[in-house]
Amino acid sequence: MIDLPYTFDVLQDEKVILSEYDNHIIRHLSAMKGQFIDQDNYEDMLSVEDTILYEVYELKRPEVAGELLHGLSVLHPGKVGDEYFMTKGHFHTVLDTAEVYYCLRGSGYMVMETLEGDWAVEPLRPQSVLYVPPRWAHRSVNTSLTEDLVTFFVYPGDAGHDYGSIELQGFRKLVLSRGGKPQIVDNPRWLTPEERR
Ligand code: F6R
Ligand code: ZN
To answer: Could you read off the pLDDT of 102-121 as tens digits, one per residue?
Structure first.
């Protein structure tokens, strides 16, 4: 069957939504066990409600080199203790694959790191474009307490997702609310590549 070009719209009304998508992934608080630094607060919140943290709308494409996977990520506002709502975060299984994020709405950061321990934290604000180079794990953090952080992403079809190493100890840097403002701080659980051996 011939593969035809297509067009769709990013509808930006009260909510941002794609005019077409194939998959709607919903990630709840329960999917983030061990990720937030304040474990007690996490358990307390979870015992009340399994809140939706973020939603991803994907267009289905073959997961092979040459294709580009694309869609919308909607990260809702909120905090667990002092830590803002965030995505799980991952390396791409094929490490040498990059990703582009275009921020449509909200405010936050992309927290990134390499296997070697380099780190970077870049702001996400409307109309900004973030380039995540190959080999960098990435996690988005919503630092607004009222608005969704909405990004459109594009990455290679064969990239795959490796959540494992991030699940073990999180990212090197955390984004916490300090005096009502976001602050980037060291993650006390994070070990250097040498310490991990
Ligand atoms: C794809 C990508 C994004 C994220 C999405 C949710 O490679 O980086 O589409 O998948 O923002 O984050 P995760 O996958 O970390 O739960
Ligand atoms: Zn990715």
So the answer is: 999 999 999 999 999 999 99
56 Cβ contact partners less than 8 Å away, ≥ 6 residues apart:
23, 24, 25, 27, 71, 72, 73, 74
Residue 1 pLDDT greater than 80, yes or no: no
Question: 27, 56, 101, 110: which to mutate for ligand 1, most atoms within 8 A of CB?
Answer: 56
What is the per-residue pLDDT across 3-21, written as a single tens digit (0 to 9) for each?
999 999 999 999 999 999 9
Q: Using the atom order of ligand 1, give the atom closest to the CA of residue 75.
A: 11
Other Cβ atoms within 10 Å of 153 Cβ, number: 20
CB distance 79 to ligand 1 below 6 Å: no
Q: Please give the pLDDT value at position 196.
A: 84
Q: Please name the CATH architecture into which domain 10-196 falls.
A: Sandwich (2.60)
What tokens does 132 get? 């995540």
Q: Is 182 in the pocket of ligand 1 (CB under 6 A)?
A: no
DSSP calls for 109-149: EEEEE-TTS-EEEEEE-TT-EEEE-TT-EEEEEE--SSS-E
Q: How far apart are CA 95 and CA 134, in angstroms?
A: 6
Dist. CA 137–CA 49, nearest whole Å: 29
What is the number of the ligand closest to the CA of 166?
1
Residues 17-42 have pLDDT tens digits of: 999 999 999 999 999 999 999 999 99
